[in-house]
Specification:
It is a single chain. By secondary structure, this protein is mostly helical. The protein has one domain. Helices cover 86% and strands 0% of the residues. It is built from five helices and no strands. Helix 1 packs parallel to helix 4, helix 1 packs antiparallel against helix 5 and helix 3 packs antiparallel against helix 4. The longest helix is centred in the N-terminal third of the chain and has 34 residues. It starts with a helix and ends with a helix. Keywords: Membrane, Transmembrane, Transmembrane helix. InterPro entries: Anthrone_oxy.
Length: 159
């Protein structure tokens, strides 16, 4: 599976997973820390702005395009588990789909939606922001690790 169309798709999945892992890593390693240093209204407003700005074709292409590649590779791997690299392809696909897509939709997006309707200057905003940051960051750490592990699995499938 390391040559031809599926080899190319595995390379796309490896690169996409690594790119997405890097985006998530930036948030885990410094973006959320920087937002946490701001007064609550400013941190909330900045996160609300980030959550709107991320809804763009570049991010969606990387995030969901990688998911599509993972799904296709997972199906191919399941059809021939004895093929060289098939288990790595399956592992990479599962790691990315569960650890990046599912965690985003079940963990980070609902938190973002809570923040979206919030007036940053309201009395309850600071309390919500204090709960939001650690919960959102925890889910983001999971996404970072899963996406990076997926990139590693796809890389191993290619050798």
């Amino acid at each position: 599976m390391s040559s031809g169309f599926f080899g190319g798709l595995a390379l796309v999945a490896a690169l996409g997973s690594g790119l997405v892992a890097g985006i998530f890593f930036a948030f885990s390693s410094f973006v959320m820390g920087a937002l946490g240093r701001l007064p609550a209204p400013q941190g909330i407003a900045a996160m609300q702005s980030i959550n709107l700005a991320v809804l763009n074709p570049w991010f969606f292409g990387a995030f969901f395009g990688t998911a599509a590649a993972c799904l296709a590779l997972g199906i191919v791997a399941l059809l021939d588990l004895k093929a060289p690299g098939a288990l790595w392809l399956l592992a990479g696909g599962l790691l990315y789909l569960a650890g990046s897509i599912v965690v985003t939709m079940a963990g980070n997006v609902p938190l973002n939606q809570q923040l979206a309707g919030l007036d940053p200057t309201s009395p309850e905003a600071a309390a919500l922001w204090q709960r939001f940051q650690p919960a959102w960051s925890l889910w983001n750490h999971v996404r970072t690790a899963a996406s990076l592990a997926a990139a590693a699995a796809f890389t191993l499938a290619l050798r």
